[in-house]
Write a structure and sequence with these properties.
Elements: E1 12-18, H1 28-39, E2 43-50, H2 54-65, E3 70-74, H3 85-89, E4 95-96, H4 98-112, E5 122-126, E6 129-134, H5 138-160
Parallel strand pairs: 1-2, 1-3, 3-6
Antiparallel strand pairs: 4-5, 5-6
Helix pairs in contact: 1-5, 4-5
Organism: Methanomicrobium antiquum
InterPro entries: MoaB (IPR012245), MoaB/Mog-like_dom_sf (IPR036425), MoaB/Mog_dom (IPR001453), MoCF_biosynth_CS (IPR008284)
Protein name: MogA/MoaB family molybdenum cofactor biosynthesis protein
Length: 162
């Protein structure tokens, strides 16, 4: 990739965990995201755990947008009746990054086979900021962060900011 068109952007990250059973002590996926951002010298400026509630998810995203230009939401992306992260966040996007979900499912297929089709991972841009919605399993978090988000976030934000 030609790095001449990737700007040195000050990346401030937000992490939102959607769960009715997790708290800060047992939020392994949220803590993994924070750890990976920190290891990559990206500041985590926002962190919150919210229940599977459209209002709570939307409020947390709006709060995170006030301080963060890269937000990772984990949890609530499956097919059960209470998995509403995608339905809540997609309408907030100015633009959808279709390739994120496609690439995530392709890479997940290598790990979990056809079960990857149950993932509704998605990403988009809101107010020139990136928002990623990923499954809440720690394996999914590591895959999304290490193989897609961390390698591409500067590139994404460079283009989103134009």
């Amino acid at each position: 990739m030609d790095s001449s068109h990737i700007q040195d952007i000050d990346i401030k990250t937000g992490v939102i965990t959607v769960s009715t059973t997790r708290n800060e002590a047992n939020d392994t996926s949220g803590n993994e995201i924070k750890k990976l951002f920190s290891e990559n010298k990206l500041n985590v400026v926002y962190y919150k755990i919210v229940p599977d509630s459209k209002k709570d998810i939307k409020d947390a995203v709006n709060e995170a947008l006030s301080s963060s230009n890269c937000i990772v939401i984990n949890g609530g992306t499956g097919l059960t009746h209470d998995d509403i992260t995608i339905e809540t966040v997609l309408p907030m996007f100015d633009k959808k990054i279709d390739g994120f979900g496609e690439l995530f499912r392709l890479k997940s297929y290598d790990d979990i086979g056809t079960g990857a089709l149950l993932s509704r991972a998605a990403a988009g841009i809101k107010d020139k900021k990136a928002i990623f919605c990923i499954p809440g399993s720690t394996g999914a978090v590591k895959l999304a962060m290490n193989e897609i988000i961390l390698p591409e976030i500067r590139h994404i934000l460079t283009h989103a900011g134009k």
